[in-house]
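Morning!

This is the sequence you dropped in the shared folder:
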Amino acid sequence: QVQLVESGGGLVQPGGSLRLSCAYSGRIFSINHMGWYRQAPGKQRELVARMTNGGMTNYGDSVKGRFTISRDNAKNMVYLQMNSLESEDTAVYYCNLRTFYSNGDYWGQGTQVTVSS
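The structure's back. Tokens below.
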């Protein structure tokens, strides 16, 4: 059983920063990539940032230069540092992990990020 648990969401003013954390656990084999997605009300879920097991990253166009994904393999953690937050960043943020083994596709329960003055 693979589990992903996000934390770190909350209310922040425009221009502020937040750091999201995702702890993953369980029987995980052959990680393909891990990342963050978000879904705003009335919109489709979209890629925010992801990192391959080899360390290559890619970001959604709207967050490039503002958000940074990182990981700590020793702690089984993935992070999303979000700077210069805008109201358009308001969404539920989901942690995602995909594996080569059995084409695994695992999701956390999501954490709410609200950017508002």
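Headline: The two ends are 40 Å apart (CA to CA).

More detail when I'm at my desk.
O.
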